[in-house]
Design a protein that fits this description.
The structure holds three protein chains of three kinds. Chain A is mainly α. Chain A contains twelve helices and no strands. Helices cover 75% and strands 0% of the residues of chain A. The chains are: A mainly alpha, B mainly alpha, C alpha/beta.
Chain lengths: 295, 275, 429
């Protein structure tokens, strides 16, 4: 490529690099740095000594952190699976041409459009054990049989999983839809002419060609799901008995409530490392195909 | 093209399922905006509201949702414009650069998107404090741009990959500069990608809560999510007003999506791409 | 000539005074930044601030607003103070924060501005919560204490007096439910979600059994003690899922109050604000049928209630400490506290307001609250209280959520973790 083009591309990229540097890269570096110190903001007399990897060693010994990790893993696995499934279903629906499809598209995006703090409040309202609609739908007026969803450890985690699936299935649907639209209509026509049925068309045409879009959705959804915070914060505050104490919430409590800046940041760094490793795995196995298939 | 009766029923059933899945929980909540105070927390709950507009009036007058709405529009709108511009330029560069470099930079950008927000909120706040940008619009827009760029760049880069080089070569041969080609040929063909990225970007900036809470403490500048969080008094949760505000905050987004959703689809069917 | 000389002197003095006066009016008004949460009745606060502006033309107060949730507000305030932000002058502190803020050097030492004679005009409990190492760091604005609400109409029907012990409450409740059949569902409603409120409620049970969580002098946790264990067992076995619905494990103040004002619970524990809500016919189905008093205790012990409330603090790095102090003095004056009491329902911290005839007239229940207020106990006072609170929340929640929980073992785990925290706090002495 000629040097003029090179200069142009550099000019295109530099503002982005600058913004990302100031607001993401430097803060990340600063966080790494913080996680290597013991910083308790409420006890400045103790200074901020450099402690190396002590915070991380402490994390491995911390039973609450281990518990948070497993809770988060369960959350990520279940939500990502259902969101992709439901997203795929909705994307296929929206992709077909039929009257009123614009309205359907708008409807499907509504859960994603609502601020997370609002939707968290909404689900807290719906799951309420006395006047919640979910109990009403299940048990009618027999208030004695109402389940206190957010009070039992098992159901509390399910409740925030349901809330997240509701909200982000549409995000997955949008990404998968973009992938669906790359598939040429002629392939389907040819298949129909050949006598292929609905399931056959899906399995042999849609499924293979939609894999890149599915994988981008999987990638971004996993990255986001590991960082879940708002839902647990608003609906349960991590309870009951730490049943919904997801990693990011535990990190928040350590950092902003208790003042353990160094330790709390170490938790965030761990989340980052987990997600980074997962992404590398995804991209290694699929990435090349992803970026090269389209050219 | 005739479909069998079974396929059609399954299809309609699927549509109804999708719509109720998306809408019913929200409608149940928002219907509270139209109820009276005792109806909201009555045990057992009441489905059908009385259609009173009291909560809307209260939200408007006592909680000032109009100015939160305005702030949200300014912040989200600016963020989207800046992110899409920067994202389009850099996405194009990444789509046309040497494979090795492009991969590296894309991975780096992805890595930026992975770091938990809670941890970088502190350093971002300190940076804004040093620059004196706290409680300003640009103080919130710039971090949002940084947070939405990764997804925008990834989406746009992939869309730009789609565009056949022959079209660009043709334009270059015609005497257009590379930059001109970008503006006149590539961008118009990428409208679905641009609109998809814009919608996702706008919604993210519209709904972001944690950074907005930390950075904007001046009531004159606070955005909708922070405003709604502030509805909650010391020991009271004004469900009625929160539901009314949720309704008001979602309506512009729904309208926006209704208006723009066609652009996402029609662009791709244009012949140019399929060639 | 003497008289002319005097006239000249007079003229010079007058013009100098006039010039000086003009100069001081031409000065820029000092802007005070008051970092607060969104008040429940903003009109009342706005009126007070307007009056302050009228009385102090050289000072302008600018509000900056965070959420009312104590945890979120704490995050915002500490973020700014720890980064040495000079753009905050006055802020609110929850009753559990002064030791933390004082130790970290975030709030100004007010001892020379707020001498002991002035402190004595306030209720004792809130003042004690603002003291750290012999100095005072905040001025209490309004206070809260755990109060016991009950359905006085139901108690009258069944010829009961308000229960003095927890067991009595459970027994009375059972009889009433048996008699009322379908109408009432539960005996008791309170806050047991895993948050700060859980600590408040559980401490009331523990203290009313003669137990305590920390030995204030040595700093040793005293959780693994029969008084504490028995109180917690009572809550786990008799209250959660029995006297109170299982759902209280996810209740904060609004939900628990809702249960009560919908007429679905006979007894209720909450802060003073619940009184006006419960008696508001627009919100409550039981308006006018509510009684209030001290919380029950365990047999042979005294009732206990947890101290709550908010205090004013001044940023140690504030550029206008004198003006900030004037503002605080005004906001905690008898007149301002009276207005806050009468119009915003906030319990005053000055004794004189309780004796004010207007207040006694329009809010007679405040006098009824006073004994509970006088005896309200603070939570452990320590710069590391937020960390201790997290451990206590975890401990209490684990103890009451699982039916077969080994409370003694959980207590020992929690004690070990709290010990480590206290050692940290001890290092700074």
């Amino acid at each position: 490529m000629n040097p003029r083009d090179q200069r142009l591309y550099l000019a295109f990229l530099s503002p982005v690099i600058l913004v990302l540097l100031c607001f993401i890269i430097v803060p990340i570096a600063s966080s790494f740095f913080t996680s290597l110190h013991r910083i308790i903001i409420g006890l400045p007399q103790l200074g901020n000594p450099f402690v190396g990897l002590e915070n991380y060693r402490e994390l491995l010994r911390d039973s609450v952190a281990r518990h948070s990790f497993w809770i988060t893993v369960i959350f990520v696995a279940v939500t990502t699976f259902f969101e992709l499934l439901i997203g795929l279903f909705m994307a296929i629906l929206i992709n077909h041409r039929f009257p009123g499809r614009g309205v359907l598209r708008a409807c499907v995006l509504i859960p994603w459009a609502i601020p997370t703090v609002v939707s968290a409040q909404m689900w807290r309202f719906l799951f309420n054990d006395a006047y919640g609609m979910i109990n009403y739908a299940a048990f009618g007026a027999e208030t004695a049989r109402y389940i206190p969803w957010l009070a039992i450890p098992g159901t509390a985690l399910s409740a925030i999983i349901i809330a997240d699936i509701w909200k982000t299935s549409s995000f997955a649907a949008l990404l998968i839809l973009a992938g669906l639209q790359v598939i040429p209509e002629e392939l389907y026509q040819a298949a129909k002419v050949d006598g292929a049925r609905l399931w056959g068309r899906f399995w042999h045409i849609t499924w293979p060609l939609i894999r890149p879009a599915l994988l981008i959705s999987l990638l971004f959804r996993t990255i986001d799901a590991f960082r879940v915070f708002d839902l647990a914060f608003v609906m349960t505050q991590g309870g009951p008995a730490d049943a919904t104490n997801v990693l990011q919430l535990y990190g928040y409590k350590k950092m902003f409530v208790e003042g353990w800046m160094g330790y709390g940041t170490a938790i965030s760094v761990c989340i980052f490392l987990i997600v980074l490793i997962l992404s590398i795995i995804y991209v290694r196995f699929v990435g090349r195909r992803l970026l090269e298939a389209s050219v | 093209m005739s479909r069998s009766f079974l396929t059609k029923t399954v299809f309609i059933f699927g549509v109804c399922l999708a719509v109720s899945f998306s809408l019913v929980p929200f409608l149940l909540f928002v219907s509270s905006a139209f109820k009276t105070q005792t109806q909201i927390s009555s045990i057992p709950p009441q489905w059908w509201p009385d259609f009173s507009l009291k909560f809307f009036r209260s939200a408007l007058k006592n909680y000032g949702i109009m100015h939160y709405l305005l702030n949200s529009i300014i912040v989200a709108g600016t963020t989207t414009l800046v992110t899409i511009s920067l994202g389009a330029f850099s996405g194009y560069a990444l789509a046309r650069l040497k494979k090795k470099w492009a991969h590296l930079i894309l991975m780096g950008i992805l890595a930026c998107a992975m770091f938990p927000q809670i941890a970088i909120a502190g350093p971002i706040w300190r940076f804004l404090q040093i620059m004196g940008w706290l409680n300003t619009y640009h103080g919130l827009v710039l971090p949002y741009v940084a947070l939405t760029l990764p997804l925008a760049i990834w989406i746009l880069t992939l869309f730009f990959h789609e565009i056949p080089r022959e079209l660009e070569s043709a334009s270059l041969v015609d005497g257009c500069t590379r930059f001109g080609t970008f503006i006149r040929v590539v961008l118009p063909l990428s409208t679905p990608g641009l609109f998809t990225a814009s919608i996702l970007c706008f919604i993210y900036a519209w709904n972001e809560f944690f950074l907005a809470l930390l950075i904007m403490t001046d009531p004159a500048r606070q955005t909708m999510p922070v405003g709604i969080a502030l509805f909650q008094g010391e020991y009271t949760v004004p469900w009625g007003e929160i539901a009314a505000a949720s309704f008001v905050t979602t309506a512009p987004l729904v309208i926006m999506v209704l208006v723009f959703q066609r652009r996402i689809v029609t662009g791709l069917s244009a012949g140019g791409i399929k060639g | 000539m003497k008289s002319l000389g005097n006239k000249w002197l007079f003229f010079i003095v007058i013009s100098l005074l006039g010039f000086g006066a003009q100069y001081s009016y031409a000065k820029e008004p000092t802007t005070l930044v008051f970092l607060t949460w969104k008040p429940n009745q903003p009109e009342v606060w706005n009126r007070l601030v307007k009056e302050f502006h009228r009385l102090n033309p050289g000072i302008r107060v600018k509000f900056q607003v965070g959420p009312h949730s104590s945890t979120q507000y704490h995050a915002i305030v500490t973020q700014r103070l720890k980064n040495k932000d000079t753009n905050v002058d006055v802020f609110f502190m929850d009753v559990i924060w002064p030791p933390e803020f004082a130790n970290a050097g975030w709030c100004m030492d007010l001892t020379h501005r707020f001498p002991v004679q002035d402190q004595e005009k306030f209720l004792h409990g809130p003042i004690a919560a603002n003291r750290y190492k012999g100095k005072i760091y905040g001025v209490p604005c309004y206070l809260g204490a755990g109060l016991f609400y009950f359905r006085k109409d139901l108690l009258q029907t069944y010829h009961y007096k308000p229960p003095k012990t927890w067991q009595e409450m459970v027994d009375q409740g059972r009889m009433i439910i048996g008699g009322e059949k379908e109408k009432i569902l539960h005996i008791y409603s309170a806050q047991f979600k895993q948050y700060e409120g859980l600590v408040c409620d559980m401490l009331e049970f523990i203290w009313s059994n003669g137990g305590s969580v920390i030995d204030q002098k040595t700093g040793e946790p005293t959780l693994d003690h029969p008084d504490v264990i028995n109180a917690i067992s009572f809550v786990r076995d008799q209250i959660i899922g029995k006297a109170a619905p299982e759902g209280v494990i996810n209740y904060e103040e609004p939900e628990s109050l809702d249960l009560f004002i919908q007429g679905k619970a006979i007894f209720h524990r909450n802060w003073p604000y619940a009184w006006s809500v419960a008696n508001n016919p627009q919100k409550s189905k039981i308006a006018g049928k509510v009684g209030v008093g001290m919380l029950p205790a365990f047999a042979g012990h005294n009732s206990a209630s947890t101290l709550g409330g908010w205090q004013f603090g001044i940023n140690r790095l504030s550029r206008h400490p004198q003006e900030a102090w004037q503002f605080i003095q005004y906001m905690t004056s008898h007149q301002a506290q009276k207005i806050l009491a009468l119009e915003a329902g906030l319990a005053p911290t000055r004794r004189s307001v309780y004796n004010d005839p207007d207040v006694q007239d329009r809010m007679p229940h405040l006098r009824a609250f006073l004994p509970a207020f006088e005896r309200a106990r603070p939570r452990p006072l320590s710069p590391v209280y937020p960390m201790i609170s997290q451990e206590l929340q975890r401990f209490f929640s684990q103890a009451i959520v699982n039916r077969g929980s080994d409370i003694s073992k959980l207590a020992r785990n929690a004690s070990a973790r709290i010990q480590k925290l206290y050692k940290l706090g001890a290092m700074i002495k």
